[in-house]
Amino acid sequence: MISVGIDVSKAKSTVIVLNHEGEVLAKPFELQHIQPDVQKFIHMLQAFPDVVHATMEATGYYHWPILQNLLDAGIYTVVVNPILTKQFAKASKIRQGKTDKLDCSTIARFGLAHWNDLPCCSSRREIYDELNIYARQYYHYMKLVNKEKLNLGNILDKTMPSITALLKDLNGGRKLSDFADRFIHYQYITAKSEKWFIQSYESWAKRKGYQMNERLAKKIYAMAQNGIPTLPFTQAVTLIVKEAVRALQSLEMSIKTILSHMQELASSLPEYGTVLAMNGVGKVLAPRLIAEIGDIRRFRNRSSLIAYAGIDAPPYQSGSFESKQRSISKRGNKYLRKTGFEVMKCLKVHKPVDDAVYRFICKKEAEGKYYLSAYMAGFNKFLRIYYARVKQLYPDKAA
Question: Total structural domains in the chain?
């Protein structure tokens, strides 16, 4: 029994090798994430006569190159939750420092202590990895979009007061940004006649694909006449508005491109049609769900999937006391929880009365549960159904 502890960093790892008695066979050394060093490391492990188990912590994307190379070389490799190794370190020593050398030693000892309990990580499937990367970029750009919407709204409060409340960010914010790009400032509108503005608004709405509303155009013109902008209609203000609109529209185009690629990738997977057919899931949410859950075969059972999402509620009982009010752990994939919330929200909007998850949410709300608690309870049930349906598509456990 030879346990290899690998503490992974961004561009390098720190490695230690222990035997079954915990004796050091190779002192901690740095392993650069470059092909020559990784291959040399693999040859060293293959030279040991005993069974080798390599253990590393999950670190987002940083451990992928080492993991894939070890798996390709046929070395038993385990990826563990950092929380487990941290708890193991606390239980092992009263005083524990924090260095890469100490961390890799803790990971190696953890691998020895749980030698028979830790399953070998399956080889990653490239399509799920790509989907996950796209999903992370999607959330990154969505944060930027929300910031740019707030920025544009703040500017328009100074150039066209109350216009944001009137247009109400229709069409995902596009109508407001398109309107600001065309009409810029109240003084620009009032410099022309009402008839001109109505005709211009009608032409703009037709070109952009919005429904023409003459009454709304008259209301906007009246607001422009009575409004008091705090920023004057100058070249500098025009540039600020135009740039804010351009930044927002550029980000929205990036999101559209990312979602398009995600849909293309997800549609090549066997489970795409099954997931898309589930109530509350559309062409935007289906690729995101698959991206966050990944290969369903890596979960031993549906409880593992629920724990991965962080919506499990661990039991709490001591003596004759047993807690009935338990919160979800939130130790899991926060992006999956966010996507699940959106799915539950869609169910509440569309109200499919024949759907078991929707009826379950309504039942929880009728019991007096707060809507967030009802949504998470519904998502728990949704994931159980997801697991059962998708798992049927993969009868074998091999990844």
Answer: 3
The answer to whether 112 and 90 are in contact (CB under 8 A) is no
Q: Phi and psi of 240, rounded to 5°?
A: -60, -45
Domain boundary residue, one of 217, 242, 262: 262
Question: Could you give the percent of the chain with pLDDT greater than 70?
Answer: 92
Which residue reads 């995902």 in tokens?
172
CB-based contact 55:78 (threshold 8 Å): yes
Does any domain span residue 399? no
Within the chain, residue ranges assigned H as helices are 35-46, 64-72, 82-92, 100-113, 126-159, 163-167, 174-183, 186-190, 194-208, 214-226, 235-266, 272-276, 285-293, 302-309, 334-350, 356-366, 371-391
pLDDT, tens only, 87-109: 888 776 655 677 888 889 889 88
Query: CA nearest 333: which of 48, 56, 58?
Result: 58
- End-of-domain residue from the set 60, 92, 121: 121
**Residue 7 pairs with which residues in a beta bridge?**
14
Is there a single domain that holds both residue 252 and residue 146?
yes
Q: What is the DSSP letter of 125?
A: P
pLDDT band at 316 (very low <50, low <70, confident <90, very high): low
Q: What is the DSSP string of 246-314?
A: HHHHHHHHHHHHHHHHHHHHHTTSTTHHHHHTSTT--TTHHHHHHHHH--GGGSSSHHHHHHHHT----
- Least Cα distance to 46 among 77, 74, 11 occurs for 74
Greatest Cα pair distance, the chain, in angstroms, is 90
Structure-model confidence comparison of residues 257 and 214, the more confident one:
257
Are 215 and 309 in the same domain? Answer: no
